[in-house]
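Sharing a chain and its predicted structure for anyone who wants a worked example. Both blocks are below, sequence first, tokens second.
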Amino acid sequence: MYFIYEFFIQFGVIIVKTDKSAAIIGMGCIFPKAAGLKQYWNLLFSGTDAITGIPEETHFSLKDFHDQDPSTPDHIYCKRGGFIPAVTFDPSRYGIPPKNLEATDTSQLLGLMVAEMALKDAGYPADQDLFIKKRTNVILGVTGTQELVIPLGARLSHPAWKRALDDSGIGADKKAEILKRLECSYNQWQENSFPGLLGNVVAGRIANRLDLGGTNTVVDAACASSLSAVNTALMELASGKCDMSITGGVDTLNDIFMHMCFSKTGVLSATSDARPFSADADGTVLGEGIGMVVLKRLEDAVRDNDRIYAVIRGVGTSSDGSTGGIYAPDAAGQKRALEAAYREASVDPSTVGFIEAHGTGTRVGDKIEFTALNDFMKQEQNSCAVGSVKSMIGHTKAAAGVAGMIKAALSLHHKTIFPTLKAENPDPELDIQNSSFYLNNQAIPWIHPEENRHPRRAAVSAFGFGGSNFHAVLEEHQRSKTKAAWDGSVQIAAFSADDTTGLKNAITGFIKEFRDADNLDQQERQDHLARITARLRKTFDPGRKHRLAMVVNTSMDPVTTADASLDIVNSGKPSCEGNADIFYGSGESPGCLGFLFPGQGSQYTGMGRDIASVFPEAMEAFSLFESAFARLYAGDGTERLSRYIFPLPAYQVKKKTAEALLTATDIAQPAIGALSLAMIRVLERFGIKPDFTCGHSFGELSALAAAGVIDDRTFAELSCIRGGLMAEAASLSPEKGGMLAVKAPLEDIEAFVASEAPGLVLANRNSPEQGVLSGSLDEIEKAYTRLKKKKIRAVKLPVAAAFHSELVAASAAPFAKAL
């Protein structure tokens, strides 16, 4: 079925509605500091700023063209941008003669690579006949000007050069020398120059080299080009003209000409940075990049058992119409695109949890966009994240929309909301604190309790000069996270030997082997490291006397980590006294493995952020506790545990306030339980199970769960019940309680309590040299002062009550009943 028909009889007219839902089954990209999809995920998740200075060796020299005064003719005032990394391109792989490279636009060459990446990611490698190529199209967003147009056009200025030289009285020999030097500064015209500079051949070359028989075309809607291409691709899929579509945007043009174009419109940043929605925003910076997605009709993708990143439910489009200026954005026009998108998607906009805005970093443009969103969405206050990847990679122009779409698809697939950089101080004119939105400043897991009847949803906006407006609505395909969001950049290198000499030789061999990767590009270095470490892990023998493991990351220098590991082996000290990424042990195995779980006071905001975003098991644990908390504690299901663990940014909720909220007993205990269960299940993923479990205070429940004595759902419910009952008991007590950790022998602490603090109890005997006192805040303060005078170390604990004392005893009977 290509259509889902909805028939409405209205005044005797039959209206047919076409369902344009499509599945994103593959993605490929090259963006600044990201030579592939996994690197792009890493950049988004880590919040990496890929905006850098202009690379002179590949682009242009600032000393020739920069002037801080925007009015200076033929000069630019912005000094930075987003530039794609070096990638290895093999022309022979695509049947392109090397001599043709100089006459072929970079967009055509790298577009071919990214199309192949996307198809491979979708499970349809271009070199295998696994799909009907004649029914696959290529529809890309490509803006009008390509990089070769400028240098080839500049060569045609030779008559003006000659006249200038003649008018200056330059002799024939010198004139010939100067003209030759000028000509050598530009590409030469040749047979392949014409097709090599055409934007439409970006799509045409892909169809030609990969033998695709569907439509190949490009569309130009300026900075909305890639979403315009996606919209066209969706219509071709819905109409049955194709069965699969490669679509997105290509823009590798970040040269002086493009910078000059944007400089003279005044939209570039004077401080050379992109700060969307920030009070410090002063314009955008230009980026370059390529992004493509592979689409199928949803029912076809399900039938073919394709991996589905996300589902595109609909795209809304509009033009601004008659406005004040051709460049000026218009809130009313953007709002019409929003209305059209949600009408086509049949989606309630209040169910969208993340919006990837156009967000260029221009104060006026961002305010207009935010106003349109806020007027239309009408959600619960601060319930929807809004952001812009331009804060990381710059404005990639024709590829801007698809950069946002890939980000949104990864967000839905991995259940993670990514950060927007440089927006710690939002534009006060947006009044974002009192809006439907919040600006996320670090990656957080997208916790979605099972009580929510709708799936996770995200949206993407892109707008172009000339008043072109596009807004796409996306939805997750699977509500549960199924695979770890691992990008391969972090690896474990493991070494074992019978003596230190053998161990050091193995590490030295790793250093030598990895140094051979110095000339490889980003993706090749990552693949090289993966191969080496995989081999090392296979040969690792935990029974050998000397064992060392180190965490290595291609974004840093693995050789530096390996050098540090040699120092640790030479010193003979364990890793806890050296590098935190290196773990060294010697001698026989120490024996059984025990898990010790912490109690209240160990909580902190943001805990578990990384593992919940990466591992399905951790996400499931947090979601389970989110549901139990809403069901058993909040009652009405609107209170969210995750909002306390992963609070709104500091501009919205001050750090101390967020920490105080998480300290509350009824919040802290289920929060600690959620993270404990997450860690238990992630360790199980790697085959690590305890022989014994033990828990301190609340940690007793965690220990029971780890031992399998209680199931996960019981653990979640008991955590919420325990926290609620203890909070209630503390609130009924006439005394406000606290706890004090004391570093001293237990007999000395007992003597101190008996003689100087009879109002306190030694609640916890944590070790022979450390205990915790519990009681009223007044008594805790007195004890703290007296211990300080005795030069005995004491630390007030961040707890909400005097646990393990009479002040919370009222919770014991109802908790026993609950058990």
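Comments welcome. DSSP finds 28 helices and 26 strands in the chain.
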